[in-house]
Specification:
two-stranded antiparallel ribbon; 59 helices; 69% helix; globular; TATA-binding protein interacting (TIP20) domain-containing protein; ubl conjugation pathway; ARM-type_fold; ARM-like; TATA-bd_TIP120
Length: 1239
């Protein structure tokens, strides 16, 4: 439809024409191709605004919908004209016109493009301030609402007007009109996110002065507004309010105390005092710490505040509390009728007039905030919190009871917090009887919501104290049975009750529930027949748990009569298993349950077993259920019952072998595991043809395309060889060995696959499989090294071949082993370089497995001769072989090695001998090393002092680390003493040795190392750059591998760590390269190590961090070099998806948004090279990702600066398409399609 026709019909007298024309315009505006000339833009804007005054409400509604679309497509001048006319209608129009114009103006402001926002907002703001002073309350309210949107959406555009806005808003908090006060509070909350420190402090001072006056006896209505304003500040800019917390808390406490004496008149004041306290606790957890006891008393007092209801439990009086009944709407600070004059009740009291529940709800939320914000203080609060919460289970208002349950759940969950678990678990166990008793009484209630909440709490208890409910299960069984059988029970209640029951069965000794099964089983089976698929699936899972509990350790006899329980459970599960017209979740649950039943009580099924196996076979052939069925058959095959699967085995083998050719990796892997289980326990049912089929089908999976599959296939082949080497041996030679040898040459070969490969070769030799003699396999292995790629063979390939040769020798006879050693010993001095390398690696690996002391002199002579080889690879391989051989006979070879290292005669080979010593120390058993530690330590420290090379220092540090792990009592004092050594290299080696010790350390270090951690990490303040760098690397290693070592020493370490993240000007210098100068930052690697350590500490012990200081260093890193920015982005991404970090991040968004904005809008020079362009694109992509993850946090839109950055920079302009792509990627990752952490 043409634009002129639309305009004509929009001006028609006929309402229907106007409606249809406006509807057509709405459709046209949504098209990307819709274009207008300047005159058409003007006419459309005028007509759209004119229709806001249309007599037909539906036309008005369509006109409002057109405005945000129109504002994106017209020129800035027309946008300003639209805003001007809309504001005039707000200010001077009639009531109906004012309301619709206000809505229209707010929709325009929400969609105004960045190009038009500046002039539009700067012109509108002074007029809004003028409108606030209007004598009409309706105009004032509308102007305040619009100003709130301006402050939220465009904080950076009203900077020059901030003093005037502040001066205009603060008096409105004392307005006699509740509607005005309500909007003014919201505006103050939005304003303070963008105020500079000076103006912010003035606002806080003003609010505090008014609250102080109110505490001394001011009017409740205005006092409530000022308290609400403080609450708004806490929610919107809590991090900035932290410095004022000490001044705020006491007036709030006094106001709450004063409100108690005013009865119902003070309820609203008490409620908002508690809401403000909750906001302070949630947003300023560190600053609020000194007032925890007082706030806890406030919450505990008011949680039982119920002046209109007499209860013996609450007879000691009240206080009040309530953490925020306002929801998420920032404008909803005051009830609509808050300003109405109190009416005389005039008659009997009604519960409908009782608002004290708001106070109790607020108190419950304050207590919840205290638990969440200060988990380390929960053990101290537990003694007073737990009884108070249990007493409030009798709460008569259901919404308050739900909050009490939620607070109790947080209290129970605190027992899992690393900082509180040790102290909390004993406290929780001591109160377990009272808690379960109180919950049991609540299960007698009729309310479904109450009973649902009780089961949620019971699940938390069972999870927090595995096995701890054993003494309390009996009284809980009847309420569970009632919840499952009661026809009035909701599906959600049944699912929660079933979940609790399953958790109890799985986490407690089976005997706990044996006496209650007669009551439980019929109720569960009734749920199996439930029509709702989620109830049915959960009931089937409970049946699986019951089957395990009936006989937890088959084939041991069950203490129960299986014939009483197994048949009814089987019939119920079988009915679901045989039905085809049901949900996928039910199908999978029935398959898993039947599999577990057969695995645990299959011998009690009798003739039913064959029928069940046939149905499972049918499900195995179904593409939808085959993966689940494969896993069920694996459970059946691994059952210790050794059930006679009979003819099922042949069909099962055929199906499983066919699945090895499927594209689904999960299906192939599950099939390999199931085949392995069948081979291990049921090989007697395999015919020769079956074995041949399995070997042929597993062979294609032996490739480096999937190393996990290859390892599983090798394990399956090993089980076949062990079951029948005579039949399988020739098949392995024909089908398996060729791909194994190909895999052996792969650089991707991993330890798990190598271990299975070694076991297979060892078994082939020991079983003397037909056609696979020791000599045959050895020649094939050595042929891999001499293949077409031998000239470019990697060290990885040689190492893999040597490991397999050593495994082969383990299975061979003594004569064959000695002959092989002689063969390789001769190969050291003869042949080409590749043959020498292979011989040295093989000798080394064989020497690890067997004692070659008898050939000490000959081996020493041959191996040390390689040190003079012109090839560096041969020298290194010789040192490796010498160290490995020595590790197999420490007493014989170690004294010789020590003597040669200390001897000046061998000085040219000094470094190689050290490498040999390192291999000996790393490969030898700890018990073999311990007697020699006192000889090795002085030698290693002497090498540090005499050798300046970094390579020598690294070798020495690695040796010292292994010695520390092997003999901590002897090595730790020596290393500890070197921490104060005058030479910086010695200090660096001492702290680096700790890093190597931690990686492979056994629990023997746990008793001695934690006490010394503070001394090691004190080197973060060392004057030497390399020492600090080594200490940072060690800190990351300890945080990753031995987090418990940092528990006590982390607080003094963190300030030193944060100091290392700062960029230091004295470490930056320029290097003159002739035509240009190059800037070198010697501190870059140090900062990278520091940020990597922060990343590791966040992963391992985030609960011990003061997150605000942590985030402050990340904000500084966002302005650093490229590598540092990427690290900071990664850490912020991790924090953004962790709920525990959300409050601290919300409080710091203001400091993060500007460096993020500079990163994503940054540009390159025109002459940038390809590498610079790629790095820049990666950095922008990383910045967009972290921006979106931060924006997804609940409450992120409450930070006005960050919200403006997202709306104006990311969702508009040139970055919009890239940002939407990132959004789709991250949202896809949340659905399992990708990893949201990938940068």
């Amino acid at each position: 439809m043409s634009l002129s026709l639309i305009l004509d019909r929009m001006a028609s007298r006929d309402k229907d024409f106007r409606y249809m024309a406006t509807s057509d315009l709405l459709v046209e505006l949504q098209k990307e191709t819709f274009k207008m000339d300047s005159e058409s833009e003007r006419k459309l804007c005028q007509m759209s605004i004119k229709l806001l005054s249309d007599a037909a409400g539906d036309v008005q509604g369509l006109a409002v919908k057109c405005l945000p679309l129109l504002v994106r497509k017209v020129q800035t001048a027309h946008v300003e004209e639209m805003v001007d006319r809309l504001f005039q209608m707000v200010k001077t129009g009639k009531d109906e016109e004012r309301d619709i114009s206000s809505i229209g103006l707010k929709t325009v402001l929400a969609e105004v493009p960045q190009s038009a926002a500046g002039t539009t907002v700067r012109g509108l703001t002074p007029r809004l301030l003028d409108g606030i002073s209007s004598t009409s309350m309706e105009v004032t309210v509308c102007c305040l609402e619009i100003l709130h949107d301006v402050l939220q959406h465009f904080p950076s555009l009203v900077t020059s007007d901030l003093p005037a806005i502040k001066a205009k808003l603060l008096p409105e908090l004392a307005s006699s009109r509740a509607a005005v006060r309500k909007r003014a509070v919201a505006c103050v909350g939005a304003l303070c996110g963008s105020l500079p420190e000076g103006l912010y402090a003035e606002v806080v001072d003003h609010l505090l002065a008014q609250v102080e006056a109110g505490a001394a006896g001011g009017a409740n209505a205005t006092l409530t507004a000022y308290i609400q304003a403080i609450c708004a500040l806490g929610r919107g800019s809590g991090f900035r309010l932290g410095s004022h917390v000490a001044r705020i808390v006491q007036p709030l406490l006094r106001c709450a105390e004063r409100s108690t004496a005013q009865g119902e008149a003070g309820m609203e004041v008490a409620e908002h005092c508690l809401q403000a306290s909750e906001a302070l606790v949630a947003r300023c957890p560190d600053e609020i710490a000194p007032f925890i006891t007082q706030l806890l008393g406030l919450g505990l007092g008011y949680i039982k505040f119920d002046p209109n209801y007499a209860d013996d439990d609450d007879a000691d009086g009240g206080g009040g509390g309530g953490g925020g009944g306002g929801g998420d709407d920032s404008m909803d600070f005051e009830d609509d009728g808050a300003a109405d004059d109190d009416d005389d009740l005039g008659g009997e009291y009604s519960d409908d007039d009782d608002t004290s529940w708001k106070v109790r709800r607020a108190a419950a939320k304050l207590l919840a905030a205290l638990i969440s914000a200060k988990p380390d203080a929960v053990p101290d609060m537990f003694a007073s919190l737990c009884p108070a919460l249990l007493a409030r289970f009798a709460e008569r208002e259901e919404s308050v009871k739900a909050d009490v349950f939620a607070t109790t759940r947080l209290l129970i969950q605190a027992s899992g917090s690393p900082v509180a678990a040790t102290a909390m678990l004993p406290l929780l166990r001591a109160e377990l009887g009272r808690i379960t008793g109180a919950l049991r009484r609540q299960l007698a209630q009729r309310s479904m919501k109450t009973r649902f909440g009780v089961f949620v709490l019971l699940r938390e208890l069972a999870g927090a104290l595995p096995g701890g409910l054993a003494a309390h299960v009996g009284p809980l069984v009847p309420p569970v049975e009632r919840a499952l059988r009661d026809k009035a029970s909701t599906s959600a209640l049944r699912i929660e009750a079933l979940g609790f029951l399953r958790l109890v069965i799985d986490s407690h000794p089976p005997t706990v529930l044996h006496q209650h099964l007669k009551l439980i089983v019929p109720a569960v089976l009734a749920c199996v027949a439930d029509r709702y698929y989620k109830v049915c699936a959960e009931a089937l899972r409970v049946c699986a748990s019951i089957a395990r509990a009936l006989r937890p350790n088959p084939p041991e006899p069950s203490p129960l009569a299986l014939g009483e329980y197994v048949p009814p459970i089987y019939e119920a599960v079988s009915t679901r298993l045989g039905a085809l017209d049901q949900d996928q979740e039910v199908k999978e649950a029935s398959i898993i349950t039947m599999g577990l039943m057969i695995a645990h009580v299959g011998d009690a099924l009798g003739e039913r077993l064959g029928a069940a196996l046939l149905v499972l076979l049918d499900r195995l052939r179904n593409e939808i259920t085959r993966l689940t069925a494969v896993r069920a058959f694996e459970a059946i095959a691994t059952s210790p019952l050794n059930l006679d699967l009979g003819p099922t085995v042949a069909q099962l083998l055929t199906e499983l072998c066919s699945y090895l050719r499927k594209s689904s990796r999960a299906l192939r892997h599950a099939s390999l595991l199931a085949l392995h289980a069948l081979t291990t326990r049921h090989a007697r049912h395999f015919s020769a043809a079956h074995k041949a089929e399995v070997v042929r089908e597993l062979a294609p999976t032996l490739s480096d395309a999937d190393m996990q599959l290859a390892a599983s296939a090798l394990a399956l082949c090993l089980s076949l060889v062990e079951a029948d080497a005579k039949v399988v041996g020739p098949l392995v030679s024909e089908h398996v060995l060729p791909p194994v040898l190909t895999l052996l040459a792969s650089p991707l070969l991993q330890s798990a696959a190598i271990a299975q490969m070694q076991a297979l070769l060892r078994a082939l030799v020991r079983t003397n499989a037909s056609g696979l003699t020791f000599e045959t396999i050895l020649s094939q292995l050595l042929g891999v090294a001499g293949g077409a790629e031998a000239a470019t063979g990697s060290k990885q390939r040689l190492s893999s071949i040597a490991l397999c040769v050593a495994a082969l020798c383990e299975g061979a006879s003594d004569a064959q082993r000695l002959e092989t050693v002689e063969r390789f010993k001769k190969g050291i001095g003869n042949g080409d370089q590749q043959s020498q390398l292979l011989a040295l690696h093989c000798l080394g690996q064989i020497g690890r497995q067997m004692d070659l002391s008898a050939q000490r002199d000959a081996l020493l002579s041959a191996l040390t001769a390689t040190f003079d080889s012109p090839a560096e690879e041969v020298k290194g391989a010789g040192a490796f072989a010498l160290g490995c051989i020595a590790s197999g006979a420490v007493r014989t070879f170690l004294p010789v090695l020590i003597g040669q290292i200390a001897s000046a005669q061998h000085a040219p080979h000094h470094y190689l001998l050290l490498h040999a010593l390192k291999e000996l120390i790393l490969s030898a058993d700890d018990t073999a090393l311990q007697p020699h530690v006192s000889q090795i330590l002085p030698l290693l420290f002497a090498q540090t002092e005499s050798a300046p090379e970094d390579s020598v220092k690294t070798v020495v540090a690695e040796c010292l680390g292994k010695l520390l792990a092997a003999a901590p009592a002897a090595a730790l004092p020596e290393l500890h003493a070197r921490l104060r050594h005058d030479a910086a290299p010695m200090r660096a080696i001492a702290v680096t040795a700790l890093r190597f010790a931690i990686v492979d350390a056994s629990s023997g270090l746990d008793t001695v190392l934690p006490a010394t951690m503070g001394d090691f990490f004190a080197l973060l303040s060392d004057a030497d750059l390399k020492v600090r760098h080594a200490t940072l690397l060690t800190l990351s290693c300890v945080a990753h591998n031995r987090t418990s070592y940092l528990v006590e020493c982390l607080p003094p370490i963190l300030p030193l760590l944060y100091e290392e993240t700062a960029k230091r000007a004295e470490l930056v210098h320029q290097v003159d390269l002739g035509p240009f100068k190059h800037t070198v930052d010697d501190g870059l690697e140090l900062r990278k190590a520091a940020y990597e350590a922060m990343d590791t500490i966040l992963d391992s012990c985030a609960e011990r961090l003061e997150l605000r200081a942590f985030i402050a260093r990340l904000a500084a890193g966002l302005t650093d070099d490229y590598d540092i920015k990427l690290l900071c982005h990664l850490v912020l991404c991790k924090m953004a998806v962790r709920p525990a970090c959300t409050p601290a991040l919300l409080g710091s968004l203001d400091t993060l948004c500007e460096p993020l904005r500079k990163t994503v809008v940054g540009t390159l020079k025109d002459n940038a090279v390809k590498q610079e362009i790629e790095r820049h694109d990666e950095l922008v992509r990383s910045g967009l990702r972290v921006s979106y993850l931060l924006a997804k946090m609940p409450g992120a839109d409450g930070c006005v600066k960050f919200d403006e950055y997202v709306r104006m920079t990311l969702k508009q302009g040139k970055l919009q398409a890239r940002y939407e792509l990132i959004m789709n990627e991250v949202d896809g990752a949340d659905d399992g399609a990708a990893d949201p952490m990938v940068l």
